[in-house]
Amino acid sequence: MAREIDEAWIDEAIDRYRRFEELRADFDKAVSAHTVSVHSPDQSIEVVVTASGDIVDVQVHGALRHREPAEFAREMRAVVTSAAEAARWAREKLHAEVFGQFRTLEGH
């Protein structure tokens, strides 16, 4: 028994695939360009991270001469962890903005 081919559904699926690829390219660009700045708990270290998770800048505020290495390492770990969380949050927010209106083919 031959199956019927729904040409309109196939055309819509192809159009949706192309639109999805455009949205994905837009998302990839936005993730690479969007940055978030976070600070260590004591505000002495600032890290700027893209939504893709790339650290693009690190600033140390104040002198390092009188800091204990263990204390500095603790602050650095804390700010890098915060940067990773901020990058994840930014990706999720951008994803919702870019793909939020994209509807599925279910029910067609």
UniProtKB/TrEMBL annotation:
Gene3D superfamilies: Nucleoid-associated protein YbaB-like domain. InterPro entries: YbaB-like_sf. This is YbaB/EbfC DNA-binding family protein.
